[in-house]
């Protein structure tokens, strides 16, 4: 038994892997300190979309807060969040908040770059979308189904050195995409021409995003952070063929169109 | 109102200056009053290719700074009354050029000329940016090899995003000129073919200039290669000028020349 466990200890088979990952997270951006009003307004939001807030990890941003939050204020805030099903995991704000974060066992993140967070629509997600996602994952922030998602359409060639980003939606390119260029979209990417540059779909963590192209000659394709480079791509049979790339589990699957 | 033409490529050594001299001369020989501007401040070459290096007094930077006027600075070509050269400064660097200064000179030239040919320096930095910024049309000079094609692709991206026309929501008319093309090497698979390059860059083909001894000879003699109408390169440039002016001319020199029986017997 002991020898057995010693052997186990010496076994160099890795027990874990360190991986980088990107996931979208709901940010509660505090604008003013008013715990009672916060409770009421949060309750209203939760009523609109109870599923959305169930066990949802949130980041509490204090950047926009006009005056400083103290420990009692923070404890009150955390309790209100937890009462409504939210799971605060981190604070975001200046280094001054470090003691506060440590006292409440939260991670302190440095202030984000302005304007990167998008306002979140918290209407109930469509049942279909929920069913597609494994229950263990927090629901990805989805734009309200009632609103059309902005799609970016590019009709001219995307040249080497150019970068095109479709924030919050899909990207459609009706021209060749040259080597050395980069396409990014929060949603799907469609290329009706040869795709020779890089294409990154679901850059904010949408694992359902896909890449469609008429001729797969890409330098790199990526869906929600999982990627394949040309070195791997050119070995598979759909190189230079019409194909789609989607995430299946943890790896990218390339299938013919 | 002159038409401003930029000869650009991204990569160096592909034949921008040779092309500027040939196209500019070709336009002048067809009766258009043309000026060729050397934007390669610090690495002046156009005057050598045009054979007027001994007559340079003032240069582009002097003109921008107001040290000289247009009449003093422009060098008249000896072969054509319609052709003028605006040489670059050899002692300064690209920072001596300013957007306002370049615009002022181009506006002055626009009043009297039909065509302004801007010979761009290599790269995508300031000199190249100023050369293409005010252009109406661009001739992208590319060699049939991958690094040149990629740099041209990058340059096309810059043309469509950082030029005055792009900022006004218009497009610069783009032309592809393939130089140093060797059909024999294409056949043996050593060189990209015309269709390979067209496929990658997807812009209209203005011309294909074959690799030719005549180009080197012309450069060293200071005579634009288009004047050598016996050479294949000279004829190919003439065709390109015709196409630039809107005529439909079939492409030549795309096939490898078959060696005749005698040449094969006695060696060519």
From TrEMBL, chain A:
<protein>
    <recommendedName>
        <fullName>Probable septum site-determining protein MinC</fullName>
    </recommendedName>
</protein>
<dbReference type="Pfam" id="PF05209">
    <property type="entry name" value="MinC_N"/>
</dbReference>
<feature type="compositionally biased region" description="Low complexity">
    <location>
        <begin position="125"/>
        <end position="135"/>
    </location>
</feature>
<dbReference type="Pfam" id="PF03775">
    <property type="entry name" value="MinC_C"/>
</dbReference>
<comment type="function">
    <text>Cell division inhibitor that blocks the formation of polar Z ring septums. Rapidly oscillates between the poles of the cell to destabilize FtsZ filaments that have formed before they mature into polar Z rings. Prevents FtsZ polymerization.</text>
</comment>
<keyword id="KW-0717">Septation</keyword>
<keyword id="KW-0132">Cell division</keyword>
<dbReference type="GO" id="GO:0051302">
    <property type="term" value="P:regulation of cell division"/>
</dbReference>
<dbReference type="InterPro" id="IPR016098">
    <property type="entry name" value="CAP/MinC_C"/>
</dbReference>
<dbReference type="InterPro" id="IPR007874">
    <property type="entry name" value="MinC_N"/>
</dbReference>
<dbReference type="GO" id="GO:0000902">
    <property type="term" value="P:cell morphogenesis"/>
</dbReference>
<feature type="region of interest" description="Disordered">
    <location>
        <begin position="102"/>
        <end position="151"/>
    </location>
</feature>
<dbReference type="GO" id="GO:0000917">
    <property type="term" value="P:division septum assembly"/>
</dbReference>
<keyword id="KW-0131">Cell cycle</keyword>
<feature type="domain" description="Septum formation inhibitor MinC C-terminal">
    <location>
        <begin position="153"/>
        <end position="254"/>
    </location>
</feature>
<feature type="domain" description="Septum formation inhibitor MinC N-terminal">
    <location>
        <begin position="16"/>
        <end position="88"/>
    </location>
</feature>
<dbReference type="InterPro" id="IPR005526">
    <property type="entry name" value="Septum_form_inhib_MinC_C"/>
</dbReference>
<dbReference type="InterPro" id="IPR013033">
    <property type="entry name" value="MinC"/>
</dbReference>
<comment type="similarity">
    <text>Belongs to the MinC family.</text>
</comment>
<dbReference type="InterPro" id="IPR036145">
    <property type="entry name" value="MinC_C_sf"/>
</dbReference>
<comment type="subunit">
    <text>Interacts with MinD and FtsZ.</text>
</comment>
<dbReference type="GO" id="GO:1901891">
    <property type="term" value="P:regulation of cell septum assembly"/>
</dbReference>
From TrEMBL, chain B:
<keyword id="KW-0547">Nucleotide-binding</keyword>
<comment type="subunit">
    <text>Interacts with MinC and FtsZ.</text>
</comment>
<dbReference type="GO" id="GO:0016887">
    <property type="term" value="F:ATP hydrolysis activity"/>
</dbReference>
<feature type="domain" description="CobQ/CobB/MinD/ParA nucleotide binding">
    <location>
        <begin position="5"/>
        <end position="225"/>
    </location>
</feature>
<dbReference type="InterPro" id="IPR010223">
    <property type="entry name" value="MinD"/>
</dbReference>
<comment type="function">
    <text>ATPase required for the correct placement of the division site. Cell division inhibitors MinC and MinD act in concert to form an inhibitor capable of blocking formation of the polar Z ring septums. Rapidly oscillates between the poles of the cell to destabilize FtsZ filaments that have formed before they mature into polar Z rings.</text>
</comment>
<protein>
    <recommendedName>
        <fullName>Septum site-determining protein MinD</fullName>
    </recommendedName>
</protein>
<dbReference type="Pfam" id="PF01656">
    <property type="entry name" value="CbiA"/>
</dbReference>
<comment type="similarity">
    <text>Belongs to the ParA family. MinD subfamily.</text>
</comment>
<dbReference type="GO" id="GO:0005524">
    <property type="term" value="F:ATP binding"/>
</dbReference>
<dbReference type="InterPro" id="IPR002586">
    <property type="entry name" value="CobQ/CobB/MinD/ParA_Nub-bd_dom"/>
</dbReference>
<dbReference type="GO" id="GO:0005829">
    <property type="term" value="C:cytosol"/>
</dbReference>
<dbReference type="InterPro" id="IPR050625">
    <property type="entry name" value="ParA/MinD_ATPase"/>
</dbReference>
<keyword id="KW-0132">Cell division</keyword>
<dbReference type="GO" id="GO:0051782">
    <property type="term" value="P:negative regulation of cell division"/>
</dbReference>
<feature type="binding site">
    <location>
        <begin position="11"/>
        <end position="18"/>
    </location>
    <ligand>
        <name>ATP</name>
    </ligand>
</feature>
<keyword id="KW-0067">ATP-binding</keyword>
<dbReference type="InterPro" id="IPR027417">
    <property type="entry name" value="P-loop_NTPase"/>
</dbReference>
<dbReference type="GO" id="GO:0000917">
    <property type="term" value="P:division septum assembly"/>
</dbReference>
<keyword id="KW-0717">Septation</keyword>
<dbReference type="GO" id="GO:0009898">
    <property type="term" value="C:cytoplasmic side of plasma membrane"/>
</dbReference>
<keyword id="KW-0131">Cell cycle</keyword>
